[in-house]
Amino acid sequence: MNKEKFEFYLNKIEAKFPNKLKLNQGEMLQCINKSRSTFNRIIEANDLHKIPKISSKEEFKRKSAKYYTYEFDVFDIAKFLAQ
Question: What top-level branch of life does the organism fall under (predicted)?
């Protein structure tokens, strides 16, 4: 991993989302430039190497359907983009 690239992406993320250390799924997808449908296909296919490391995953039910919320660490996103 190139340290200059890492710092570049970290600064870019911090400029877009100031004072945040954890980003939700939508914010992370803006950073890596992928759509929600692509994200869902990656999760379903278990191709987790195509997205940054998930910090936390929370499950909840609404009308008997399962939904998940994901959180991502800003440093993990920058590290992923710098590769």
Answer: Bacteria
With tokens 């710098």, the residue in question is: 82
Residue 69 has pLDDT above 70, yes or no: yes
Per residue in 8-40, pLDDT (tens digit) is 999 999 999 999 999 999 999 999 999 999 999
Q: Which is it for the CA torsion 23, 55, 77, 38, positive or negative?
A: negative
**Residue partners of 42: CB distance under 8 A and separation at least 6:** 48, 50, 51
Question: Computed from CA positions of residues 22, 61, 37, 42, in that sequence, does the dihedral angle turn out positive or negative?
Answer: positive
Residue 1, pLDDT score:
67
Residue 43's H or E segment, with its range, is helix 36-45
